[in-house]
Design a protein that fits this description.
The chain is an alpha/beta fold and 198 residues long. Helix content is 40%, strand content 14%. The protein is elongated and about 60 Å long. Bound molecules: zinc ion.
Length: 198
């Protein structure tokens, strides 16, 4: 039986769909929301629908952005011949925060994970290969050091090697299984500096 039938039940159900939010957290959030001032709730709801409506993939690196081409790709001072491959926009943001990288990015939106049925065609890999037809000096693989991240790195490296483009992998100063976005900026820039050629 649904104890909170009606509007609250619906709100809890919608919140529980979010990643990392179990039923308990969903209930806590739902009760927090209904106790919030009305205008604040409206702001929250509007932020969600507006973000969903306006955010799209950059036409070059596929990061999430509200422009056709993201700020990094449209910045003339960035080195377009150096492409860092990351799993998601959060990882790209983590590298941007180090202010130590002046190349561009390619966002895969995932990693190869056979156990979960995620293959090479389920991430933005074909899009990366297409980008390599332009003048590229180096591809830096900065996927996470999880099994999926390493599998993806290996796969990409094998794919690119025959083209003669230099392929490097960020150093494993990054803890195993560690998600890039949680690693501090110093560790990240060190991992980048100490990258090794594959
Ligand atoms: Zn871009």
């Amino acid at each position: 039986m649904d104890l909170y039938s009606g509007y609250i039940g619906r709100l809890i159900a919608e919140l529980a769909v979010l990643p990392g939010i179990g039923n308990k957290s969903a209930q806590r959030l739902a009760f927090h929301i209904i106790n919030m001032p009305k205008d604040q709730v409206e702001k929250l709801a509007d932020a969600m629908t507006s973000a969903r409506e306006h955010i799209r993939y950059c036409n070059t690196c596929y990061t999430l952005t509200d422009k056709e081409t993201c700020p990094v790709c449209s910045d003339p001072s960035r080195n377009k011949k150096q492409i860092m491959v990351v799993e998601n926009t959060r990882d790209m943001t983590a590298y941007e925060k180090t202010h130590k990288y002046d190349g561009v990015y390619h966002v895969l939106h995932g990693a190869i994970n056979p156990g979960m049925g995620i293959g090479p065609s389920d991430i933005k890999l074909a899009e990366l290969i297409k980008r390599l037809q332009s003048d590229v000096d180096e591809v830096i693989i900065a996927t996470n050091s999880s099994i999926e991240g390493e599998t993806t790195a290996m796969y990409i490296s094998k794919l690119i090697k025959p083209t003669g483009i230099k392929v490097t992998r960020i150093a494993s100063g990054v803890p195993v299984g560690g998600e890039l976005e949680y690693i501090d900026e110093v560790t990240l820039s060190r991992a980048l500096d100490a990258r090794v050629e594959l």
